[in-house]
Amino acid sequence: MGPAINHTPLTNTEQISGTRVVNSVIIPAGSAIDPARTKLFFTKNPSVFTDSILMTNTSGNNWTANITLSGAGTYRYFLMTADAINRYAYAPSPGSWYTFTAATDTVKPVITTTPLPNTPKTLWPATVTATVTDNIGVDSAWVRWYKNTPSTGLKRFNLANTSGTTWSNPFNSTQADVAIGDSIFYRVIGRDISALHNVDSTPLYSFKIINIVNACVGTGTSSSNYPYTTYWEDGRTDMLYTAAEITGVGGSASYIMKVGFNVITADPAPMNGFKVKLQNTTQTTLTGFVASGWTVCYDGVYTIPGTGWQYITLQTPYYWNGTSNLLVEVCYNNAAYTYYSPVNATSIAGMTWGQYTDLPTGDGCTAFTAGTSQAIRPNICFNISPTLGTENNGILTPVKYSLSQNYPNPFNPVTKINFDIPKQGMVNLKIYDVLGREVKVLVNEVKTAGTYSVDFNASEFASGVYFYRMESNGFIDVKKMMLIK
User: Fold this and answer.
1) What is the mean pLDDT of the chain?
2) pLDDT tens digits, residue range 54-112?
3) In CATH, which superfamily holds the domain spanning 402-483?
4) Is the dihedral of CA 294, 251, 419, 117 positive or negative?
5) Where are the beta strands (DSSP E) in 83-178?
């Protein structure tokens, strides 16, 4: 044990003459600090330290000294002290040193942002958030954008420094300014505080204004084993959500395209015979399983992709009339058990009915008729299209092919890739490593015209740069993404 030196290293500077102050806190360990052996060592460019000066005790444990600058270059320095019983301390450790550059700065700021996904009109204006860093310091950041084509007029809004290196603000626009199907093009620009005011920007990103909204019911954080009760081979869960609850979070008479649950822990095993059923109802509470009236909207095998909000894309979209309460049933039939995939839930009595066990024959979707009432109900999000109009299943038919930048990016380990196809055709979407080797096929099938979203789970891959390539009806596009674990 001996004295300790606490020091915040100096950063790069454009100052090339005069002095820079080096402050430190030197904490003794039972023996007084020796001022004659408390020094600052520094040099420019070489690693041989030829200059040293005594540090001054300004108050308490605070010590200071000045580095004299002698023009542009790379400066290195370290601190040393000793106490009355000859115990030495260094900052950084012996054989190391702090480094800063004194020179006119030509380094551009670094801007990192997750491109915005397609945005419902009801949620416009969207908010742009970016991380902006610089070796000297950031002066400002802003967004330049336009709607559909530059001829509609270039607009700009400043980003506010909300905390640390984070800059954020919503678009300077209102819902009346945009229509479903509009494309928004934007880039984030940053400027540093250097004498040259170096500027850099992101690529030009784009997204669409869409007629899809998320109506999410429930904000509780209780852990519910329902509806993914895969600690057992078979399970069935009925959940009731009132019209008032759905309209209260933005829902209206709608085609439900997806349903999602907020997963706390994800079981990687698939659920076979997995079904999602929906129906409009006048029921206000559940006293047992509902035996009839269901529309089967998903029927197949489902594996929970990961934690957080995970959506099931319905094979048959369901029309909710906007006034009835809504019943949702999830059931499955496995031949083996693994463990639960609990989801976030909210305490509310009489709205969830469930049963699970190992069935040697039959499956939970048909064999379970008893069950019990649950005190908590899983939180749920309904991904819906308020109107159909001339759209296909509530989604505007794209006017051109496009492959969007994945988001989030960088990611770990799951990211989303969106793409548009204006007419039916074969779609190939593949992942390649940095050497150009194909490592994953995400899509290889005929798809109708529409906007699609595909999840890429890279849990089996190493960190690094990957590329994804889409091809359809002669359209080809390739984009880069970064996996960081």
Assistant:
1) 90
2) 999 999 999 999 999 999 899 999 999 999 999 999 999 988 999 999 988 888 999 99
3) Macroglobulin (MG2) domain (2.60.40.1930)
4) negative
5) 88-91, 98-102, 110-113, 119-120, 127-133, 138-147, 155-158, 160-163, 166-170
Tell me if 4-102 shares its fold with 110-210.
Answer: yes
The verdict on whether omega for the bond into residue 125 sits within 30 degrees of 0, i.e. cis, is: yes
Residue type, 374: Q
Q: Considering all CA atoms of the chain, what is the largest pairwise distance in Å, rounded to the nearest integer?
A: 90
3-state secondary structure of 472: strand
Write down the pLDDT at residue 386: 57
**CATH top class, domain 214-385:** mainly beta
Torsion of CA 118, 122, 127, 128, to 10 degrees: 20
Mean pLDDT, to the nearest integer, of 308-320?
A: 88
* Residue 123 vs residue 365, higher pLDDT: 365
**Predicted pLDDT of residue 392:** 37
Q: Give the C-alpha separation, 370 to 392, whole Å.
A: 40
Q: Look at domain 110-210 and name its CATH class.
A: mainly beta
List the chain domain ranges: 4-102, 110-210, 214-385, 402-483
pTM over 0.70: no
Q: Whats the size of the chain, residue-wise?
A: 485
DSSP H or E segment with residue 245: helix 243-247
Neighbours of 323 (CB within 10 A): 11
Report how far residue 308's alpha carbon sits from residue 323's, in angstroms, rounded to the nearest whole number.
Answer: 29
| pLDDT above 80 for 362 | no
In 3-state terms, what secondary structure has residue 179?
coil
Domain 4-102 has CATH 2.60.40.1220: yes
Cα distance between residue 355 and residue 364, in whole Å? 8
- Taking alpha carbons only, the member of 358, 356, 348, 360 closest to residue 330 is 356
Report residue 133 as tokens: 């860093």
